Amino acid sequence: MSGLLLSALLLLAGCGGGGPQCGPYARSVTGLPLSGPAAGWWAQSDGRFAHSARPRPGAVLVFRRTGRLPDGHVSVVRAVVARRRIMVEHANWEPGRIDRAVPVTDVSPGNDWSLVRVWWAPSRRMGRTIYPTFGFILPAN
């Protein structure tokens, strides 16, 4: 099976409605050799890749498991806009879609990106829900 075909199958694997999932999408964009539930990427990457409380382009923001995100979530940082604002791309935040240039805001009291709000395209504004995160995985350059 060709690498391109395999990547396409991984993007669609396990998706309700046939859309892409966040983990396989982030893996295809960053090359990080991580798999399984998105929240598990933090522990999987420990000792293999640097972790940070500060974003940088190409880093992966790892969301913790919550009632709304039972497997967690991962987003790829595309730009640091300001100290507390980044732009990401990710899959399946809006079911079945890949979204690019999505604003994410740090709302943590310690300015450490441990709590964030994410743009919700259907409402055309920042979402109201505050999501806990582990931080950023920094892929090797």
UniProtKB/TrEMBL annotation:
Where is each Peptidase C51 domain found?
1-117
Q: Which Gene3D superfamilies match?
A: endopeptidase domain like (from Nostoc punctiforme)
**Classification via InterPro entries:** CHAP_dom, Papain-like_cys_pep_sf
Q: What is the official name of this protein in its record?
A: CHAP domain-containing protein
Question: In the record, what lineage is assigned to the organism producing the protein?
Answer: Bacteria, Pseudomonadati, Pseudomonadota, Alphaproteobacteria, Acetobacterales
